[in-house]
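stage 2 :: seqdesign
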C-alpha cells in the first residue's frame, strides 16, 4: 500500500474542521472519493485529535 502524496491527501480531507478526530477524517475522505488505499491509511491513524492538516500528513508520513 503506497502512501498518498500530501496534496492528494488534503484534497480528500477538504472540508474538515480542525481540530478533528480520526472518524471526522475518515468521513471526509469517504465523502471526497478517496481510493481504497487512502481510506485504509486514514482508518489506520491513531484515534486522537488532529490539530490541522500538517499533523495528519506528519502522522501518515512517519
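stage 2 :: out
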Amino acid at each position: 500500500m503506497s502512501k498518498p502524496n500530501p496534496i492528494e491527501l488534503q484534497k480528500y480531507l477538504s472540508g474538515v474542521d480542525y481540530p478533528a478526530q480520526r472518524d471526522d477524517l475518515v468521513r471526509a475522505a469517504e465523502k471526497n472519493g478517496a481510493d481504497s488505499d487512502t481510506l485504509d491509511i486514514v482508518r489506520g491513524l491513531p484515534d486522537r485529535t488532529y490539530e490541522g492538516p500538517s499533523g495528519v500528513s506528519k502522522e501518515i508520513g512517519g
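stage 3 :: structure notes
- The mean pLDDT is 93.
- The chain has four helices and two strands.
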